[in-house]
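Board notes (copied after class):
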Amino acid sequence: MTKLLEQAINHLKELDADSQNVIASLIMEELEDDAKWDVAFANSQDLLADLAAEAMAEYNAGQTQALNPETL
């Protein structure tokens, strides 16, 4: 465990039970969300590769335009 995490946990121990539960819920939601993103990215690698290949084919065929930062 990192020193920063230890400091945070020690600080949390000083809070009342309701506050601890609120923060614990936020942490759990964040961890679950990260896990969902990991799965989504892992399952999308083939799609991303296909999209990248399509983009490169369009670029090589001269079917793309340079971005103009002034119009973004």
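Comment from the instructor: The radius of gyration is 22 Å. The chain has one domain: 3-63.
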